[in-house]
Amino acid sequence: MKAIVFENLEKGFCFREDVKRQSARPDEIEVQVSSAALNKRDDFVIKGLYPGLVEKVIMGSDASGIWKGRAVLINPGINWGDSQEVQSRDYQILGMPSHGTFAEWVKVPQQNVYPAPDHLDKHEAAALPLAGLTAYRALFSRGKLQSGQKVLISGGGGGVAMTCIQMALAVGAEVYATTGSLEKQEKLIDLGVKSAVDYGKEDWDKTLQKSFGNFDLVIDSAGGDGLKKLIGLVKPAGNLVLYGGTKGKSDGISPQIIFWRQLNIMGTSMGSDRDFREMLELVTKHKIRPVIDSVFPLDDFQSALDRLRSPHHFGKVVLQVAE
């Protein structure tokens, strides 16, 4: 079958047409992949920045497909475990170290396969799982977002951040965002964001605070130097949830602000099986549709990767696997 395979750190990935289909265990099923979506995680794998790399592994975490004649999507989180609070030691995500979704077929535990929401096309369904799960847990399971609260979401053009914005708007929150360009600011306003600021400007945090005050909930995936500014924008007793650290370590954070304002700073990664089910219920109830930036054929993975790496992409980059 055709697939995108991580060869090794020296060669990176390759497109192959001779990959052998893996036999499914009794507790697994094979899904014929229709579409698959890229995530930053895939880029980290290629760059050698992801832990526990295994050579000759089919990449990819997100997919929609067909099983027993019906449209399905896949929860990419395997073996979360029994605790709602934290994943088990056996937890892993499709695409590393086990084979993933950038292929014509993928085998997964049957419990990880769900009917695709009827209002989504195959590209939208493929774009939902990882971003939707991460966003739902950050906003609701960890952030405890309520209708009417003010939420600030950083990096508004990315897949998870965009999904956070859509979900927060759906439940009646007042949503603000940071992003990297005027074009993206305008697109976020069109989505319903009340205000979006350019995080490239030095005093973006002061601009937000002066005009809108502080926030009940702040969601961040970057860390780095911007984190101290985000902490300063959280209301007393408010929540800040981190689901990534693309900008690296953070210096200059004031513990005085954290303890005097009684702030709650939390980490989150992916989500539980219950989170995934509740996420699908929310998406179905509010007819949320992931924003698709672009679609590429499987054999043009390099172009898809280039688009993911581009600062101009807005929403999810998707691979079309089947016609």
In short:
With about 325 residues, this protein is of the alpha/beta class. It has ten helices and 18 strands. It has two domains: about 5-130 and about 290-320, Medium-chain alcohol dehydrogenases, catalytic domain (Quinone Oxidoreductase, Chain A, domain 1); about 135-265, Rossmann fold, CATH 3.40.50.
Mean pLDDT across all residues, rounded?
96
Roughly how much helix do the residues carry, as a percent range? 25-40%
CATH topology name of the largest domain, in short, is: Quinone Oxidoreductase, Chain A, domain 1
Unreliable stretches (pLDDT < 50, length at least 5) are none
CATH class of the largest domain: Alpha Beta
Tell me the number of strands.
Answer: 18
* Structural class determined from secondary elements: alpha/beta
| CATH homologous superfamily grouping of the largest domain | Medium-chain alcohol dehydrogenases, catalytic domain
Q: What's the shape?
A: globular
- Give the helix tally: 10
In sequence order, what are the helices and strands, one letter per element?
EEEHEEEEEEEHHEHEHEHEHEHEHEHE
Strand % is 25-35%
Our count of domains comes out at 2
Query: What's the story with the biggest beta sheet?
Result: 7 strands, mixed
